[in-house]
TrEMBL record:
<feature type="domain" description="Response regulatory">
    <location>
        <begin position="2"/>
        <end position="130"/>
    </location>
</feature>
<dbReference type="InterPro" id="IPR011006">
    <property type="entry name" value="CheY-like_superfamily"/>
</dbReference>
<feature type="modified residue" description="4-aspartylphosphate">
    <location>
        <position position="53"/>
    </location>
</feature>
<keyword id="KW-0597">Phosphoprotein</keyword>
<protein>
    <submittedName>
        <fullName>Response regulator</fullName>
    </submittedName>
</protein>
<dbReference type="InterPro" id="IPR001789">
    <property type="entry name" value="Sig_transdc_resp-reg_receiver"/>
</dbReference>
<dbReference type="Pfam" id="PF00072">
    <property type="entry name" value="Response_reg"/>
</dbReference>
Length: 151
């Protein structure tokens, strides 16, 4: 299976890779760390699974440093782009924030996830709250990945 991880946190990327390789033996994993790089990747390549962070930087320079504003709802924007492209992947949001606030809109994790699951039915298949102090998220992701693999 081909898996795209869209996230800017090195620790979270490493943890997600480990879970993917453990759950989906032989998978190809690609990482994109900004909105623009992720959008370019989605437009040119298809993936079976996308593990998507909600809050991501706009762009990434060639030296790996981030530029532009933080997109507090960047994951929602990318879901919208995937929907417009009729992108055929299973998307799982993996975020470590329990509240999202861009200065205009504030919304709790569960409320946002419920809203997105309704808006992007068929594309968004799950949401996971990531934390480094518990492995509950690992169990949740492993279950989702196993379910996808068995389909």
């Amino acid at each position: 299976m081909k898996v795209l991880i869209i996230d800017d946190s090195n620790a979270k990327i490493t943890a997600l890779r480990e879970v993917v390789f453990k759950s989906l033996n032989g998978s190809k994993v690609v990482v994109r760390r900004s909105f623009q790089k992720a959008l370019q990747e989605i437009e040119r390549e298809s993936y079976d699974i996308v593990l998507l962070d909600m809050t991501i930087p706009t762009t990434e320079r060639s030296d790996g440093r981030f530029e532009g504003r933080t997109r507090y709802f960047g994951g929602r924007e990318l879901l919208g782009e995937m929907d417009l492209l009729d992108y055929d992947a299973k998307v799982v949001i993996v975020t470590q924030f329990d509240r999202f606030d861009d200065g205009v809109e504030t919304i709790e994790f569960r409320d946002l996830m419920n809203k997105l699951e309704q808006e992007f039915q068929g594309l968004l298949i799950g949401t996971v709250f990531y934390t480094s102090i518990s492995d509950r998220w690992v169990v949740e992701i492993e279950k989702i990945l196993k379910d996808i693999q068995s389909q």
